[in-house]
Specification:
The complex is a heterodimer of chains A (435) and B (308). Chain A contains 20 helices and 13 strands. Chain A has 435 residues and is α/β, with parallel strands linked by helices. Chain B has a two-stranded antiparallel sheet. Classes of the chains: A alpha/beta (435), B mainly alpha (308).
């Protein structure tokens, strides 16, 4: 009798606790265990802190598939009146996210947010109409990966770091002539690189101040900057210097080409530095890194930050949003960004984290990480490197990639780009006409 | 013959049909009506916007900036469906005829032939993706060993197209064979025996007797295979090629393995243009209706129902 009574009593107590506790939902997009495990660890720490402070809130993290699926899930949930509090969104979805109207700029919540510690190019990207919309979380940019052993085998200086398109071409010429089996360069066919090469030349991707002064109405795919990029790729391809898996946006496939020593040079995200460094150790060759090679004669403007940030949704009580914001600031604090960077290779987005890593001697230990940092820190903040905003970004990416694929199949650069511009403009006009 | 005296009341048949009609109304007729209405709106799934634009979606489909892509996709879809249906049915008739011979182990052969039917399109496509991976796939390992070649199955335009057709045919083979095997059991042996006595060889018997006697089944399978190739091949395409790669002119306006249904998915779900996707699917519906009418009008004349 007593036992039963106690059991019922504890059940009631448990229920009471569960009722009193408000869940703060955080939807994120990482599907691998290492990254989502890291997020879950931060959530547990934060929840412990919350209960120690006697607050009746609890953060609940949930994987929602790809970035696109996460955005869709959040939008649908918001339309049904049950939005999550926090959503991790990719950078190219920024304009779309603003246009859905379900997000609250983080600067408007509570006392706003102290931005002084954030790396400038990162904040530059996520500032839209003068307001910081979201808190940067995982940020990256593309760099050049080099197989030093193959360079030497081809008769080149093993410490060679090509800076420009023509540097790459002349290295490729030597490599092809040397008769080694590997191709000169491999990178996956992704519009992201094209966008970076535009920014490096200081060229906006869309009009109206790269879509930041006003809604963009035109995609600038026939500019000289655009032609420089595609002509270079055509040149590499026609001379047999270039290789890729043939699939669009095939990150893993192109990494495999490089780590299997089928290419001397490789271009991919700094976020892969961790994985590739490990793979090269296993394959037994020395890895070098360089800044992204740029068009000849252009001033190095720097890169557009890629990756994702965390957004707050509207329609929640002020207090819940405050807790949500506090969690994200906790997750991206100095110490956590250091461990995040070491785990993945994503940039720690805070200056204080960079200082801490430097003090630890992290960069001296592996200078390849230093290269990635220099590239970001030396970026000139302007509208081109701030990154383009357009609602039809995802369609534009496909259009650009298919245009480059056409050029690889033998089409003329000018004609392919003109056609692509027509399509991208039409897609953008179609998107804009929703309003 | 008038034999609907079975039902005394005029309402009873409707009452009995009611459960089916309710389900059809909720899941088929009402969504179809909504699709029709939606096709006249500019509507975006993510933005939640919706505005009446009349025939703009249809204009964009036939004459907009992306019209060349849609034309290519239309042609490809027809080519794809025709290939899947004809290769699939021809192969199935032949295999089913072989499998219905009285030989040792016939039941085992039949079982293996029916096997792919049990797989979902996604699983079938995954198997193909592994087999035809250019670097590590079993097919290229063998080809490389024998001939020293490693064809790039997934990104050489026509090769990718043929691979997707092959995967779709293979996936549906089991289904077709099951039906043909059943139909073959029902063909009276006398016809073949009589023909044999008259001096017809096995090939003549196959084309003059088996194929015509199977025509009612072929007529039925034409529909199911057509539906499969138009709609259910989606899973195979999504996993094997995601609609790519872009072909050589004049097939350079869209991915070579993008069929209409796949593009509807890309526009409607991936890009959130629900109004346009509705217009596009109405277009597909129209094509299906035309083909069906055509088939009933001209196809059914050739069907041999044995008894009459």
């Amino acid at each position: 009798m007593m036992k039963q009574f106690l059991a019922v009593l504890s059940l009631v107590a448990l229920l009471g606790m569960a009722m009193a506790q408000t869940n703060i939902e955080f939807w994120y997009a990482f599907s691998d265990d290492a990254r989502s495990g890291w997020i879950q660890d931060r959530i547990s720490e934060f929840n412990e802190q919350l209960s120690a402070d006697g607050k009746d809130y609890q953060v609940v993290g949930e994987r929602k598939g790809s970035y696109r699926e996460t955005l869709d899930a959040a939008v649908l949930a918001a339309r049904q009146g049950t939005p999550p509090h926090l959503v991790q969104l990719f950078e190219v979805g920024s304009q779309l996210a603003v246009d859905t109207g379900i997000f609250e700029p983080v600067g408007n919540v509570g006392g706003g947010i102290d931005l002084s510690d954030y790396i400038e190019p990162v904040i530059n990207y996520y500032t839209i109409d003068g307001a910081v919309n979201s808190i940067p979380f995982n940020s990256s940019s593309p760099i050049l990966y080099i197989n030093k052993d193959l360079l030497e085998a081809a008769g080149l200086d093993r410490n060679l770091v090509p800076e420009t398109y023509s540097d790459i071409l002349s290295a490729c010429e030597t490599i092809a002539a040397s008769g080694i089996e590997a191709k000169c360069i491999g990178f996956n066919l992704h519009s992201w690189f094209f966008e970076q090469w535009m920014a490096e030349q200081g060229a906006p991707l869309v009009n109206n101040g790269n879509g930041r002064d006003e809604r963009a109405t035109e995609v600038l795919l026939t500019s000289d900057a655009a032609k420089n990029i595609v002509s270079w790729i055509k040149n590499l391809n026609d001379n047999g210097y270039y290789t890729y898996t043939g699939k669009l946006e095939d990150w893993d496939g192109s990494d495999a080409i490089f780590t299997n020593q089928q290419a001397v040079f490789h271009i991919t995200s700094t976020a892969d530095l961790g994985n590739i460094t490990a793979a090269t150790k296993e394959a037994g060759f020395e890895l070098g890194a360089g800044k992204l090679p740029i068009a000849d004669g252009a001033e190095r403007n720097g890169v557009v930050i890629g990756g994702a940030s965390v957004w707050l949704t509207t329609g929640h009580p002020e207090e819940e949003l405050e807790v949500a914001k506090d969690f994200i600031i906790y997750m991206t604090n100095t110490e956590n960004m250091v461990s995040w960077h070491k785990l993945t290779g994503y940039y720690p987005v805070r200056n204080s984290s960079v200082d801490e890593l430097t003090a630890e001697g992290w960069f001296a230990e592996d200078p390849n990480y230093q290269v990635a940092f220099d590239q970001l820190l030396e970026t000139i903040p302007n509208q081109a490197t701030g990154g383009a905003l357009m609602g039809s970004f995802l369609e534009t990416r496909t259009i650009i990639e298919e245009a480059i694929q056409k050029v690889l199949n033998g089409a003329e650069v000018d004609a392919a780009l003109e056609e692509a511009k027509k399509l991208a403009d039409a897609a953008l006009a179609d998107y804009n006409s929703n309003f | 013959m008038r034999d609907h005296a079975v039902f005394k009341s005029r309402f009873l048949p409707w009452l009995l049909l009611l459960p089916s009609l309710i389900i059809l109304a909720i899941f088929i007729y009402f969504p179809a009506l909504q699709t029709f209405v939606l096709s006249f709106y500019k509507s975006n799934l993510r933005l939640g916007t919706r505005r009446f634009t009349g025939f703009e979606n249809f204009y964009n489909l036939f004459a907009g900036a992306f019209a060349p892509a849609y034309r290519q996709i239309f042609l490809q879809s027809i080519l794809f469906s025709a290939s899947v249906v004809f290769i699939g049915l021809a192969l199935s008739v032949v295999l089913a005829t072989f499998a219905s011979q009285k030989i040792v182990g016939a039941r085992v052969y039949r079982l293996f032939l029916i096997w792919p039917f049990a797989l979902s399109p996604a699983v079938a496509a995954t198997i193909f993706a592994f087999l035809f991976n250019p670097e590590v796939g079993g097919v290229n390992l063998i080809l490389n060993e024998l001939f020293g070649i490693k064809p790039r199955w997934l990104d050489t335009p026509w090769l990718a197209f043929m691979l997707v057709v092959g995967a779709a045919v293979w996936k549906n083979l089991g289904y077709n064979i099951v039906f043909y095997l059943a139909a073959l059991q029902n063909i009276p042996k006398e016809y073949a025996e009589a023909a044999a006595i008259d001096g017809a060889g096995p090939i003549a018997r196959f084309f003059r007797i088996t194929v015509p006697m199977l025509s009612p089944m072929t007529f039925f399978l034409l529909f199911t295979n057509l539906t499969f190739s138009f709609f259910d091949a989606f899973g195979i395409i999504d996993i094997l090629t995601r609609g790519g790669p872009v072909g050589y002119p004049p097939f350079d306006n869209a991915g070579m393995t993008t069929i209409m249904m796949y593009r509807v998915f890309q526009e409607g779900i991936e890009q959130g243009k629900s109004g346009f996707a509705a217009a596009f699917s109405l277009f597909i519906l129209t094509i299906i209706i035309i083909i069906t009418v055509f088939q009933f009008r001209y196809g059914s004349r050739r069907v041999q129902y044995g008894d009459n």
